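Posting for a labmate who doesn't have an account.
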Amino acid sequence: MDIPPPGSIELLKKLVSFETVSSRSNLTLIEFVRDYLADFGVDSQVVFDEYGAKANLYATIGPSDVPGIMLSGHSDVVPVDNQDWSSDPFVAVARNDRLYGRGVCDMKAFPAAVLTLLPEFIQRGLKTPLHLALSYDEEVGCIGGARLARQLTSSPVRPALCIIGEPTNMSVGTKHKGKRISRCCVTGQEGHSSDPRKGVNAIEAASMIIGQLARIARRFHDAGPHDEDLDPPYTIIQTGTIIGGTSINVIPNSCIFEFEIRHLADNGPNEILREVQTFAEDTIIPAMHRVSSMAGISFETIAEYPGLATSEAAEVVQLTKALSENNGVVSVPYGCEAGLFHEAGIPTVICGPGSIEQAHRPDEFISFDQINRCERFLDRLKDHVCHDL
């Protein structure tokens, strides 16, 4: 197997060394990329989150007054806590025609390849600009991507199309589900556990809502709607976290849980949430108020992004097929920022190196073959956007 050029591997190792777990800042990586681009005369826009701890990066290489092709990725990675790694996850190592490390697959290989080949794009001269985008907090709900999409919507020159380098084995992804993450806060009333009649058990109320969410999820599983292009082909609902109670002999006065809805395009989350809220208002809250008027249930949205359904006839699909030398399209089982950019008026597809089967796992890896295929993809992109030699 051909080993990728040393520059590409070394740059990927460098990006992996930044411990950009979503719970931490990504600024060291963003600053590195900003300085790397500046060395080639490329200015970057760095837009911080509301706390100044994280940032998106957006840069245009080539003409700034015409729409170009956006190459997009996220800078954050999932945690490594309680995972059994064979080596330091933030020190990428090569073994058996693979590179191992957190984020090598999801998804630092794509921006590493783009940055490695950037000097060749610049040397040849671009007739069509490239827009490089790196976001924060994709793994916890596409938060940075949503901010970037809003920024691009109001930009005087927005990209003509977008390719997101999430792992697809370099296939062309045109469809993914949307997602909404919600938090439910249940307020009860404390009391001694010896007499439940004198308190409002927030955990028990929360469990009734969780049960209703599970029943709705089962209904979608059994009755649909279904979209056989997606796997699984129906809307999914699952509760992921729950916190409540202080002691076994105290009626809990608070319970907070979070749940996600991964929905088909025609099975939006608003209707699902209305059904759950109606259940809470009609079935649970009246009984709570008979004990305490201060008891209650509230819902809030933590993060969300729309689904993606890009027409196979779209220019971005035809171009990406040609660049990847792949005539088919795929639907991806995960969500990403593609739906956000597409909704912002930028036709978008997903195409990047590596397999999602390797993501989020201990000993995450990417094969040298996938890195090579990504670089050949970018070589063909050079021929498309650069002046003739």
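Reply:
Got it, the structure tokens are right above this. The chain has a mean pLDDT of 95.
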